[in-house]
């Protein structure tokens, strides 16, 4: 997958573009259906699939005073997941107040058609774009007839009669329901970050841990507890217990104990994969040795 950081950078480098737009936070099963359809249409037209997304998240720019924004993915996580989903091209547009004022028509005429020469535009059900969310399927269809591109709408994806959405995934994660979130995502929830020396666990003085610091403050950290996880580090997979702890300031941190391996002392990039919350804990709770040992046995049974 090629990654561009503006549409001018991508202009002239993509053949017969089949394009969609959106945040795609989580790269969940519904997003993957859209990407699959993009690739199918691209094969039919001798073209390439394209996703246009935005960074930072539009809400962070439009409502800077709101501090409750939680995202399923950091930008680097999203890039990795989109590549695994089979997307050909990702265009990350810097989102600014000036860009937010672009009309739907200008976005289509100047960017989709003018710069990318889009052959087909694919949108999810009830998707809107442009200033004040003016653009929708009907509007795109009208412009397509005028500007010679096709438009297709993809219906929402249901899982066990429930519509999949990033909002529902966030809710499941904030409730600690990792298994439900993973079903919606069609992959394990991940936290990518930098491994470092951990602060240890309250009540277990001297028990070493490693910390995992995420680069973006909006990254959603699940609630306090002990989690069955796998750690991917330098292409190696290691069984681990993930501890989510919360300090008096309300900020959560991630501490890791490996079941069988030893982590490096120096800082390094790693990814933690979440399978299940095996024990619930309260902010500021201690972790007696018997509790950790019980959680360890549960993790051993869950992670293969």
Walk me through what this model shows.
The chain has 304 residues and is α/β, with parallel strands linked by helices. The chain folds into two domains: 158 residues, HUPs (Rossmann fold); 115 residues, Riboflavin kinase-like (Elongation Factor Tu (Ef-tu), domain 3), CATH 2.40.30.30. The protein has ten helices and 14 strands. The two termini are 30 Å apart. The model has no long low-confidence stretch (mean pLDDT 89).
How would you sum up this structure in a few lines?
This protein is an alpha/beta fold and 304 residues long. The relative contact order is 0.13.
Blueprint (SSEs and pairs):
Blueprint: E1 2-4, H1 7-10, E2 17-21, H2 29-45, E3 48-55, H3 58-62, H4 75-84, E4 89-94, H5 97-100, H6 104-115, E5 120-124, H7 137-147, E6 150-154, E7 158-159, E8 162-163, H8 166-174, H9 178-185, E9 189-197, E10 210-213, E11 225-233, E12 236-246, E13 252-258, E14 268-280, H10 289-302
Parallel strand pairs: 1-4, 2-3, 2-5, 3-4, 5-6
Antiparallel strand pairs: 7-8, 9-10, 9-14, 10-13, 11-12, 11-14, 12-13
Helix pairs in contact: 8-9
């Amino acid at each position: 997958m090629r990654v561009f950081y503006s549409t001018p950078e991508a202009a002239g480098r993509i053949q017969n573009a089949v394009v969609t737009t959106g945040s795609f936070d989580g790269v969940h099963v519904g997003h993957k259906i859209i990407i699959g359809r993009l690739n199918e249409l691209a094969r039919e037209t001798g073209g390439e699939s394209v996703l246009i997304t935005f960074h930072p998240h539009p809400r962070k720019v439009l409502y800077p005073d709101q501090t409750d924004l939680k995202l399923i993915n950091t930008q680097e996580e999203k890039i990795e997941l989109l590549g695994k989903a089979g997307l050909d091209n990702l265009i990350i547009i810097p989102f600014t107040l000036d860009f937010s004022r672009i009309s739907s028509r200008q976005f289509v005429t100047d960017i989709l058609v003018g710069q990318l020469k889009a052959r087909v535009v694919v949108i999810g059900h009830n998707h809107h774009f442009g200033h004040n969310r003016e653009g929708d399927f009907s509007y795109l269809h009208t412009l397509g007839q005028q500007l010679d591109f096709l438009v297709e709408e993809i219906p929402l994806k249901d899982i066990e009669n429930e519509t999949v959405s990033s909002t529902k995934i966030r809710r499941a994660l904030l409730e600690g329901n990792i298994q439900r979130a993973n079903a919606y995502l069609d992959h394990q929830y991940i936290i990518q970050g930098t491994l470092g020396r951990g602060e240890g666990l309250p009540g277990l003085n001297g028990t070493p841990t490693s910390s995992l610091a995420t680069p973006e403050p909006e990254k959603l950290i699940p609630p306090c507890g002990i989690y069955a996880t796998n750690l991917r580090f330098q292409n190696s997979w290691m069984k681990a217990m993930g501890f989510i702890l919360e300090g008096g300031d309300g900020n959560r941190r991630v501490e890791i104990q490996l079941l069988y391996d030893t982590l490096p002392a120096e800082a390094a990039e790693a990814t933690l994969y979440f399978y299940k919350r095996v024990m619930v804990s309260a902010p500021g709770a201690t972790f007696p040795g018997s509790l950790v040992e019980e959680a360890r046995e549960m993790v051993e049974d869950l992670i293969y």
